[in-house]
Amino acid sequence: MAGRGSRSRLTLEAVFREERGLLLAALVRRFGDLDLAEEVTSEAIEAALVHWPAEGVPPKPGAWLMTTARRKAVDRLRRDQAYAARLAVLQVEAERAAPVPPTDGGLPDERLQLFFTCAHPALPAEDRAALTLRCLAGLTTAEVARAFLVPSATMGKRIVRAKNRIRTLRIPFRVPDADELPGRLPGVLQVVYSIFTEGYAASSGPDLQRLDLAEEAIRLARILRRLLPGEREVAGLLALMLLIHARHNARTGPHGDLVLLDDQDRTRWDHAMISEGAELVVAALTGGPPGWYGVQAAIAALHDEAPDVASTDWPQIVALYDVLRGLAPSPVVELNRAVAVAMRDGPAAGLALLDGLAHEPRLSGYSPFPAARGDLLSRLGRHAEAAVAYREALELAGTEPERVHLRGRLEAVGREER
Amino acid sequence: MKYLMLINAALDADGAPTGCSTPEDWMLFDKSLKEAGVYAGGDSVADFTTAATVRVDERGERLVTDGPFAESREVLGGYFVLDVPDLDVALDWAARCPGSRDGGSIVVRPLAGYGG
């Protein structure tokens, strides 16, 4: 009996995790105060945990939570008249700016406003991801702290500081107008993508936890996709993350070591996730000029859809890197393009392009650059030069799995040389 | 909500503001602030490179020094006080200010409003 009780509590908690962001956003919209909204959201969920197991889940759980939270907010405001007066002014201004849409028992979805508040450019970049995870993903402060590998107290202080900034600067709770959206949306997408890469990088900490973070980013992108169905870069970002995440089972070997794309067991990729991502790429690339995330996703899709490295559509990948180069030129894009050219036209062609990048200050100290040179040199049979390049890459490599991989390559070219 | 806009000008080697904003640009900006009903004060400093700083130490001795920014490339050129609903509106006005161009920048800070 006790076992079943705690299981149903877990189910309820999963429901609350979904509802929490929605409820919080609706309450921030109503009261214009993130702190107050968070407190009464938590109180309403606690009340539900007491009442629902005994009395059953109400027919409209969202509306029940909202009513309870609103009642608690009003109680709180009655207790603190000065606070109430200040809030009343905020609320009137907010209502005037955009009246609350009518609801039919469900909650109005105001999470989009919250996304833009959490990712506001006036907040420090490090706070944006933390705040987004806390407010929209429904993670506790302790969970957010674990996600960024900082002590819980430090994260608590950071979140309080960020919320104070929102209040003091009076950062508005709103979706930017159509003419500002192109300027502001990339900031929101950047936050979600940085949460994902934090999970993907797997530099330290237990693996499972990092995967959780990648999945959290995908969940946030799905919400954004629902709220902004017409924004192609949202589709592009979600596609990119799905297409990369689909490979996560094959990315590490039995001892947690890094397995590169070439050597991955492609049967272990998540093919349902790949086809979902591929469909989104189509949405991201039709109906207008392509965006950064959309093009990156298209490249990821070509890798994911190929049965093996040899039959990958390298000419198409080179063409997409050309598009990416036009959108956001960078030495890293040039490096990746050179590798794709090597696959299309042979290692000599790729090496010529890489040697043209040798003067790039932003690639000096970037370990993938000498690693790629080493790879092409060894394929050309220039093993002694390849060894020099691999040694350079080894010195620059940041993580142990990377070093293990490079040591392996170094040994292999050493054997060839003898 | 009142916001203080601190206008930082970039100076060239001779101490003259860089860029090409003209007195007309500033008059136009001033006029649009007033027409929008958000103007709550503002002025320009008389000389961009001259400033004096006063400190009083624990013995009550007054210490006056030059600066603080005689050597720096960005100097405070003036300020506006705006009365607008929220940060985004303040940032929009800052972006329209001629001082935000040609290497200059505007620092926007919310005021507590104790002055009423």
TrEMBL record, chain A:
It comes from the Bacteria. Keywords: Sigma factor, Transcription, Transcription regulation. The keyword Transcription applies. Signal peptide: none annotated. Residues 184-284 form the DUF6596 domain. Residues 118-165 form the RNA polymerase sigma factor 70 region 4 type domain. Residues 16-81 form the RNA polymerase sigma-70 region domain. The keyword Nucleotide-binding does not apply. One of its GO terms (molecular function) is sigma factor activity. GO terms for biological process: DNA-templated transcription initiation. InterPro entries: DUF6596, RNA_pol_sigma70_r2, RNA_pol_sigma70_r4_t2, RNA_pol_sigma_r2, RNA_pol_sigma_r3/r4-like, WH-like_DNA-bd_sf. Coiled coil: none annotated. Belongs to the sigma-70 factor family. ECF subfamily. PANTHER family: BLL6612 PROTEIN, BLL6612 PROTEIN-RELATED. This is RNA polymerase ECF-subfamily sigma factor. It comes from Amycolatopsis mediterranei (strain S699).
From TrEMBL, chain B:
InterPro entries: Dimeric_a/b-barrel (IPR011008), YCII (IPR005545). Gene3D superfamilies: Dimeric alpha+beta barrel. Residues 1-106 form the YCII-related domain. It comes from the Bacteria. Belongs to the YciI family. This is YCII-related domain-containing protein.
